[in-house]
TrEMBL record, chain A:
Keyword match Isomerase: no
GO molecular function: branched-chain amino acid transmembrane transporter activity
Full protein name: Branched-chain amino acid transport system permease protein
Main location: membrane
PANTHER family: ABC TRANSPORTER ATP-BINDING PROTEIN, HIGH-AFFINITY BRANCHED-CHAIN AMINO ACID TRANSPORT SYSTEM PERMEASE
TM region positions: 6-29, 41-68, 88-109, 116-133, 168-187, 218-234, 254-280, 292-314
Membrane topology: Multi-pass membrane protein
UniProtKB/TrEMBL annotation, chain B:
GO MF annotations, alphabetized: ATP binding; ATP hydrolysis activity
SUPFAM superfamilies hit by this protein: P-loop containing nucleoside triphosphate hydrolases
Keyword Cytoplasm attached: no
Alphabetic keyword roster: ATP-binding, Nucleotide-binding, Transport
One cellular component (GO) term of this entry: plasma membrane
Domain of life: Bacteria
Domain ABC transporter: start-end pairs: 6-248
Protein name: Branched-chain amino acid transport system ATP-binding protein
TrEMBL record, chain C:
Keyword terms, alphabetized: Amino-acid transport, Cell membrane, Membrane, Transmembrane, Transmembrane helix, Transport
Name assigned to this protein: Branched-chain amino acid transport system permease protein
Presence of keyword Transmembrane: yes
Organism: Rhodospira trueperi
CDD domains in UniProt: TM_PBP1_LivH_like
Amino acid sequence: MMSRALSPTVVLPLLFVVVAVGLALYPLVGETFYVRLMAKIIVLGILAMSLDLLVGYTGLVSLGHAAFSGAAGYITATLILKAGVTDMALLLPASLAVSALLALVIGWISVRTSGIYFIMITLALGQMTYLFFHDVSYWGGTDGISVWDKPVLAVGGWTLLELSDRMVFYYTAWACLVAVYVGLWLLMRAPFGQIVRGVRINPGRTQALGHDVHRHQLAVFVIAGTIAGLAGFLEVARSGFMSPAHLGWHESAMVLIIVILGGMGTLVGPVIGALTLVLLEDWVADLTSHWKLIIGLFVIAVVLFLPNGLVSLLTRGAGPSWLRGRRATPAEAQAEGGDDG
Amino acid sequence: MAEPMLETRALTRRFGGLRAVNNVSLTFEVGVVHAILGPNGAGKTTVINLLSGDLPPTSGTIRFRGRDITARPVQRRVRMGIGRSYQKTNILPELTCLDNCRLGALSRLPGGLARIRPSRAARRQVQARAEHALALCGLEARADTIAATLSHGEKRQLEIGMMMATEPTLLLLDEPLAGMGQEESRRVTELLRRLAADHTMILIEHDMDAVFAIAERITVMVNGAVLETGSVEQIRASATVREAYLGEEAEP
Amino acid sequence: MDYTYYLIQAMNGIQYGFLLFLVASGLTLVFGIMGIVNLAHGAFYMVGAYLAYWLAGATGNFFLGVAVGVPIGVVLGLVIERLGFVHLYHRDHLLQVLFTFGMILVIGELITILWGDDVHGVSVPAMLAGSVALTDTQAYPVYRLFISAACIATAGGLLALIRYTRLGMMIRASASNREMVELMGVDVNRLNMAVFGLGVGLAAFAGMIAAPVNSVHPTMGDDILIMSFVVVVVGGVGSIQGAFWGAMLIGLADTFGAVFLPEAAGVVVYALMALVLVWRPSGLFAAR
């Protein structure tokens, strides 16, 4: 146990520094296979951080988040395959724009609702996006799209980044991870983040203090969707492959598990969650072909025994208090509010 | 006569078949503390909810300083200067008292980039407003206390502080003294009296001592409709009011 | 393509709608009464289909298989409720979602272990194998009519149960005010078990009778789950009536979407849902 002097506001950024430095140094010592696995973890970590922004910071439980990374991935893969575009200065903005636009549309419909409705609607609209890429033959059907060329960033004849090089990709993705973390950390400390925190804790009261709740929720939804788009772009640059399964709700649910496993509302937790789950999957898949059974039991165990995530073991209660125990029944909530004369 | 602060015309709100507020036309003058009295179920809280924008009216209009605000959402009304406090304590329990007030102060920040990278001056202004509001409600010593751990009376004070942080000109107060002990009541009444000096107030309160101590005009509502409006003396003297409502409480 | 073709499509749509209703009504009840978002509900539909596949093969009689299978499904559901769901009451929806997602993985994998990854078929029982001639060239399979009839009977039974029995009274009271029912001294544990068992029974039954027209495979639970969610959202969470009309609307929209817009068939239903929600954010028959 840590001493009480270490508050989460100090521990969490410190923890991220440790994780980031670890990831930066790993390729110097690790085997190729595990370096590849780490690259996958970094991309997944970016996706999970973006979902944490929604779930942990804004209280919006989205079960369709993979739609945004998937749509961006499809745009990247299709532009490479069908239009022969490899210029990163074109690919990246295009895929981010698509995921942002999609998030704007889905978010506009979804934030009008809350709670269980929000979960169901993001699930359904995410599934609609899945079916769009699955059913329309232009996108390659169930098999998806494979590309051999990788994005390249060149300025005036100077090649700056060639993502086909595994190490170049690794450190580009790493830089993205760090940039996303720092960006979101700053954003959540800014007035915008303070209002968003109010929206999560008590939306009604936050509105009664002069803030447009839906507009803030939508803004967060679009930001999260755009960052997910970055993860989708990186995924195609990493694996050269995009298929409908990347958008399916099982993928969305797994990202959600990653966020919870690591510790929601902490930003660094999702990265640790991605690390843990990918390594676990890799290990279990070696043991048995029925690894999904083990993962399923693991998920259940996390929900029952570690709902505040791994990070909470370090910070003792850094997680949001509303997850910690039972939900208060209305009767209790009323008792909390005092009698009303 | 000067333009009124707030004016309702034939304001009506139905819940199914029930007319919770029925054809209420009231004028609230600038700088006046106007109390709304009535038995439980008279529609007082519904009136506050209609004025704050928490509920849309079934029919009728609301004008704030001459402008029709009937269709404006809550947050726009707050930014125009209408603050409200709730009957049931409605705070953000996991935040500190100062952060609770800061959330109110942030509503005065312009939108857009200023909310992501505010200037140093803007930051200072928000901080100053939040601290000022906290001082107003008498909780400056509790700035860093988590709101959930406050006593009931302190939570009620914070409730008022959060409202004040939005810098309202019109205060909608829904039973600010609800559930308070005598000493707490006295303190908050004193606070309200101080705020009354430079704010317009619409006040619902069951504590008659407090109402008679700070209110200048009183409206009595029964069954969703206005029974009578007048000065404190008029209402005290009114036979109709005595009969309909005050009778039971005013007589020993 | 004459009108008979559309008639057949309409009948298919209605039949699908009935199946959806059986699954969605359980989903909406479990949420309305128990306050639980149950992603594993579709898995019970799949379990029903596999039980039908297994028992019809083992007993040689489809109806006997269903008669034995429904109780097995319900018992299985109750065991899961006692072991797992009891931990979820009053917990956050997020945790319920993840817990039941974990269950989907476990149930799906157990089924793969027991029956493999392959797509299985269940043959239509001989006595319902024929077709009804609609015109000289077009006919409608008797078994599909049987599905609709069985669903109507079940739905009727469900509505009667909710309207006229003591259990139904508690369900209705609980849907509108759970705390009140708890305070009235109703044994909430037993009520929850009854509701959950009922939901599982309906889903498993739907999976069984649908098995002969749909193939039986390990992802079938997902498909019906998402569709049922759409039905519940469109109809209004917690409302049986909403679930019924939502199911009909979605069943028909899905069927005719496939007829008129084959490339975008999957999207039609969701577009419809989005439209309904823009118009009425809490569904057509919102309980509250």
